[in-house]
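Minutes, project check-in
Item: structure for the 438-residue chain
Input as provided by the requester:
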Amino acid sequence: MCGRSVSRRDGVHSGRPPHNRRFEVQEAERDVAVEDEAEWFLTPGDPRRGVAREDPYPLYARLREQRPVLECSQKRWLVTRYADVLGVLRGNSWSRDELAAEGVALDAATLPPSRRLSAFSLLRRDPPDHTRLRRVVAPFFTARGVARWRARVDELTRDLLEAVRDKDSFDFYAEVSRRLPVMVICELLGVPADDMDEFARWAATTLSVLEPGDDPAAVQAAREAAATSCLEFFNALADERVRSTRRPDDLISHMIGVDEDRLSRDELVSTAVMLHIAGHETTANLVSNGLLTLLRHEDQFELLRSDPSLVPNAVEEMLRFDSPARNALTRIAVEPVEVGGVTIPRGDTVYAVLGSANRDGATFTDPDTFDVSRTNNPHLAFGSGIHYCLGANLARIEAQAVFTRLITDYPRLRLVAEPRWRDSFVLRALEGLEVAWE
């Protein structure tokens, strides 16, 4: 059960409301629903989380208004206001290292495969290790670094859209938005084309490791098997690069070849796997969620068709309006931290709810309005601070390529079935998006 939190208007830090019986009764009547709904949202497989899965934004609004810093079960907290989320993302009192928080050694020999996937990567490391790892891979993902991929991304986008041009109806998520980022990140890493589909399946299976709570035994077994396959695959690929006398110009070869910030094999493999998983998931969700939003806001779709120069701006608005990740990866308090007037104890876990922050009316004008011409848009879809998403620039050029092609070279699309949402607390992800050409 989620517990009582404190809003800034309470003016207290104890977590207790003022001693006014009428106030307490009114608060209790309001608290039960929002607290319970938040707890359901955190619980994998809970059938009551369906409403929030389909449309989480009413819940986010209630949390921002009533319980902006909410303590839930198992020492977990939800933070939902923009200013507080930004403070968590940029703060120095937080760790991403779950193993250290649990007192578990960073030892590949003793960790289960699914934890090895991320434990050695920059996603789960703190400075100075995080700084060293990011310094190695960052040049591939700067604006200049990804600019050389723009023509190739456009070529792949054209090929995928041409493949579905003559279909009466098709699953846009499966055929386009999921496939494009897999193809791009595999080429960037140096994964052979013949292995792309299989690796995408492994990656999808291992994603449950990012979700809160415990999974059923069958899910855990499938995840560990897929994680083992991922690790074996990338270790073999790294071995091949090490033996090669002429390495290709890909990220794995680059990570092997660096001298000053040399990566261990566990760091190399873990970083490669997590870049693949995080890279293709975020972009797939951006593109599919973005198309769904345009289809539900035909006036904005028409505005985009009439002025294709708005595409980059429209992509930023898609990122804000229906963010591809609901939450940033967990932060663990390394000391007592005050957030929004509430003290979070050392060792507790915080979920910074990006999707809620990006709809906060204290930061955005008309936050629930989708406006492709919006100009003041400091969204947090890619996070902020030292863990700002490495693949943000790459995701942007992929989404821009898709929507530019759609509005200039292809007929209009329409929905032919209600979209299917994945049961995920971390990701805002579709399972399918059935569309047809008009």
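Outcome recorded: The chain has a mean pLDDT of 87.
No further action items on this chain.
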